[in-house]
Structures are given as structure tokens and as C-alpha cells.
Design brief:
The chain is mainly beta and 140 residues long. The protein has one domain: Immunoglobulin-like, CATH 2.60.40. A hairpin with a 2-residue loop joins β7 and β8. The relative contact order is 0.22.
Amino acid sequence: MLSSSLRLSGLLLLLLGLLSVSGCDRGELSLDEVAGDQAAYRLHSSTVDSPDGPVLRVEVEPLAPYRVNLEFPWALMVPVKDMQLASGDASRLDEARAVFEFPAGTSTGLVEGNLRLSVCTDDICLTPRERIRWEVASGE
């Protein structure tokens, strides 16, 4: 009887810990904590030609049943350009897709950045950080 009560108490503490995440009314997990092989989103980085020169682009497309978390403070940091973009800087940010674009400027070769993102289902939110890489060809 005592053993059952201790197990139940431990289970309740575990559940309370999982549900008491500040800033989100759903449980919040990192991508590493999610069980199974199902992907939550597709991440694509590319360099796009424009009349003003190359544009670096990163796109996040959530996969069902996930959607873009519009309440999360998304951030794209590109140290070599000393740049940080926030949610309001996205060229598109809705439940179906998040897109950030910025001019490559004089950058050539490998450009790296870090993206902080969030996708959610009705039950959980994932808040992974992704390393992004772009290959920028020289203008020669």
C-alpha cells in the first residue's frame, strides 16, 4: 500500500514538472526529448539570386500535426554579419510557414547562423535551435 502511494506521488510530481513550463500552456520539449522518428518540421536554407545581389533564405515548414508557434520569439543570428533577426523581421510568419531572408552583401563562401524556432501541436511545443549554413558563390 505504501509502495503504491509512493509510486503515485512520484508520477504526480513528474506530471506536474512536465506541465509547469512558464510561457506556454502546453508542455514544452526540446526536439531531443521527443520519442519516435516522426519529424516535426522541414528546414531549408538557400541562396536566391535577386537584382540587388544574392539573398540568404531559411524556411521552416511544420509537418502535420505541428504548426508554427506564433507566440514564440523566433530568432535568426548570423554572427559573421553581426546580425540578429526576430519574429517581426520574418518575410513570412504564419502557422503554415516561417521564412527569413536577408542580403548576403559582400559575404562569400560558407555563411553560418543559428535559428531559434518553435512548432506546436495541441499538446506540446518543440523549441529547438538549428545551425543554418549557406554557400555563397563569389561574384566572379
